[in-house]
Amino acid sequence: MENEKRKVGDYTVLCAVNIGSREIILAENEQSANGERFLCCYGERNDIFEKFSECAVGDDYIDAALFFAERIKKDAEQFRAEVEKLDIPVTVITQVDCIPDHYKNDINGKIIAINPAVLKPEYQRADRQLYYVTGGFGASANARGSAVFCKNLAVLGAAAAAAIAVNCLFEAQKVWKLGFDAEMKAHERIVARLERFPGFDARRKYRLLQIGSFSLRRNYYRRTAGEEISLDLLETSFTPEFMSRIVYNFYYPEDVFYDNAVPGELSKAGQDFVRNRAKPWPSADAVYIDGDIVVIVLTEEGLEKARSLLYF
Question: What is the DSSP string of 221-246?
Fold first, then answer.
């Protein structure tokens, strides 16, 4: 019923604040006579079930309220730190930024934006709105279904959220769309090269060391005289080094790369390759396997930096 009070076991929820993937809950059991009248816990739920964890109880409301407030503060600060670590502009895509689309159009293979109004307040930002459509009955032209399968563009490249102008069912502006497609095509070719490399086995688990990152959007942008261009528009890669394993896992039904690696973790033979033989893509020496580490070299600048971190 609409006026039915939410319960956590025998406790009635007094207040709940959502931050990120979980809630901080303050609840009361008026019938408790054992010093456990008030409850503070974390809650996580989906359409099927609800889970509560890290429960703390007590009989003093002020103590419970202060503990509740401390948890809110802690989670909020942690969430803000995670967002700042992304190092991308915190902007919101609205209808004004979009190119109109229509249900009669097929959106498979296109980039879409989620209406910010349906997102939690802390997720109302561009990196949480942008998705690449991979399928689903709702993605077809004149669809009768509503399911749309997609991948978050922040996973394919955190910087993608910076300046794309797109619709709630929309295509990216020409420069971004062509640049994105070109970068994805380059990575498809890299994956094909890797799969031909002696000893590579997609059934194994690897760490990934991507050396450097590139942006191909500049190839599709016609600059006017005297125009100043932001780094976000043309230079920031869709596939930065720190996101590399997630990007390459996109090409496999099950994750092949379980972690990123750093140059200092290479064996002596691997470090010798980076120092003396490695060359940027599309060179034949842009891909190498060192034990459980796959090395992919994209730029000369990245290669110089990686060489400075070697110790053998």
Answer: --PPTT----HHHHTS-SS-GGGHHH
Query: Would the pTM count as exceeding 0.85?
Result: no
Give 98-118 pLDDT, tens digit per residue: 777 766 778 787 778 888 888
pLDDT in tens, 160-178: 433 333 333 333 456 777 7
The list of the chain residues with pLDDT below 50 reads 1, 157-172
Distance from C-alpha of 11 to C-alpha of 5, rounded to nearest angstrom: 10
Beta-carbon contacts of residue 151 (< 8 Å; ≥ 6 apart): 131, 132, 134, 250
Distance CA 259, CA 281 (A): 22
pLDDT at 310: 87
Cα four-point dihedral sign 284, 160, 243, 109: negative
Pairing type for strands 293-297 and 50-58 reads unpaired
Query: Residues near 299 by Cβ (< 8 Å), separated by ≥ 6?
Result: 211, 212, 213, 214, 280
CA atoms within 13 A on the CB side of 262: 6
Number of residues in the chain: 312
Smallest Cα–Cα separation from 239: which of 226, 257, 253, 222?
257
**What does the alpha-carbon distance between residue 144 and residue 114 come to, in Å, rounded to a whole number?**
20
DSSP H helices, the chain, are: 61-86, 153-156, 174-196, 231-234, 244-249, 268-272, 300-308
Percent helix, strand and coil across the chain, each rounded to 5?
35, 20, 40
| Among 175, 238, 171, CA closest to 210 | 238
